[in-house]
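Attaching the record inline, Q. Sequence:
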Amino acid sequence: MIRILIADDHPIVRAGLRQIVLEAADMVVAAEASDGHEVLAKVREADFDVVLLDLTIPGLSGLDVLKQVKSEKPNLRVLILSVHPEDQYAVRVLRAGAWGYVTKASAPEQLIAAIRKVHQGRRYVSPVLAERLAEHLEPGAATMPHESLSDREYQVLCLLASGKTATEIADALALSVKTVSTYRSRILEKMGMRTNAELTHYAIQNRLVD
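Structure, as predicted:
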């Protein structure tokens, strides 16, 4: 049996995922977690085959949880489940060590197939994402300005472009407002921009935000 840890802060989403998994004869939901700290605690106290991890889980961001799990249990397969379209985060999380990326808009059969594939030790990517990854590997492929950002800077960029204030971003990422302002300054400098409006326009134009 494939032992699965479901990590999502919404009880209704967890219930839906649990039902999907229960319909697969070779899988079982071994545990659930509602925030990043709980995910790490569960991973440390028990063995799982696959972690279904919501990218925007509170407490610690999905990216932070992913990196910590990879550091502590490098053989544990983490499958990212997100509301964000693939072209926003998928390449970044795969580089950070995720075994696959599935959007919440995917069909249940696609999720089950993804779980089985990563459990077998193979990466799961959709045809669209596979094409995007291939583009990144092409010699001389153009690098977009946002690709120079660190993972944390990229998170702050997406939140700023979504209309979040520095205070709201600080609360969401467990940072101080001053630190968020520092990240904002670095982002503007790296991307050659001066205002949040320019960042927002860029993010919308390049589909980094919904």
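The chain has two domains: 2-137, 145-205. Residues 91 and 133 are 7 Å apart (CA to CA).

More tomorrow.
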